[in-house]
Amino acid sequence: MKTLIRASALAIGMAAMLGAGAARADAPALKSVRNGAATISYRAQGQGPLVLLIASTGRGTEEFGQLAERLAERGYRVLRPEPRGIGASQGPMEEVSFHDFANDFAAVIRNEGGKAILAGHAYGNWIARTIASDHPELARGVVLIAAGAKAWPKELSEAITMINDPASTREQRLQGLRLAFFAKGSDPAPWLQGWHPAVTKSQRAARKLTNRDDWWAGGTVPMLDLQGGADPFRPASSRDELKQQFGDRVSVKVIADASHALPAEKPIETADAIADWADTLAK
């Protein structure tokens, strides 16, 4: 009997060790790559075709954890590079343009090998489109996650400025998050953290230094315009803006009950929409 008990305990212990090993194997690996004077840190997980996730204004990619895990489950290798000024990513922050940021992330793709689906959240969609325009050999497709319309109310940009301001009260910032980022019924509190004002400043300056015609088309690859149904940056009247301009290159998908923080509010739905669309593309 004692022998059986010891054997059972050993089997359970071995199973636990194997389970822990599997969990570690599936966990994101932290890697880095150089692009000139910049060093870009990124997480990589999963196996399969590449998907590169790019964060919104002044934010990092740690909050894409659930989204990345789901994409990995769907058979993709997910790359989450941090922009300059967040985590271990560093490099010049002044007198830089979208092209500099695109080169940073292009270096990540080259480090991994092959082409990638370029999925950018909000501000990040501009960088995704810049990569596809500047480095067409690295792009399989572009996903615009909660991309704004061609024009949006000034108060939404002002809300982002206020949220980034350390002088703003907690209640003011929550009000701004509810206005600009989160649908009714979603909890905006987690986004009280994770803002990097210096990064926001650098990214906004980069927009002014970049000619929109350089990146707007996002190269010539297929494009998924993934929208939140309650996103004030993307009212219903603007649903087909890009499809009308670029035709059959563009697929439009709307996720209900989500706002501008779409991948945070609906990470599984966002991941499945990306994977479903990416599954249709040529390898």
TrEMBL record:
Q: Name one GO molecular function term.
A: hydrolase activity
Signal sequence coordinates: 1-25
A Pfam family reported for this protein in Swiss-Prot or TrEMBL: Abhydrolase_6
Q: Which InterPro entries match?
A: AB_hydrolase_1 (IPR000073), AB_hydrolase_fold (IPR029058), AB_hydrolase_sf (IPR050266)
Q: Which residue numbers delimit the AB hydrolase-1 domain?
A: 62-273
Keywords noted in UniProt: Hydrolase, Signal
Q: Which terms in the GO cellular component ontology are assigned?
A: membrane
Put simply, this protein is called Alpha/beta hydrolase
Could you tell me which species this protein originates from? Candidimonas nitroreducens
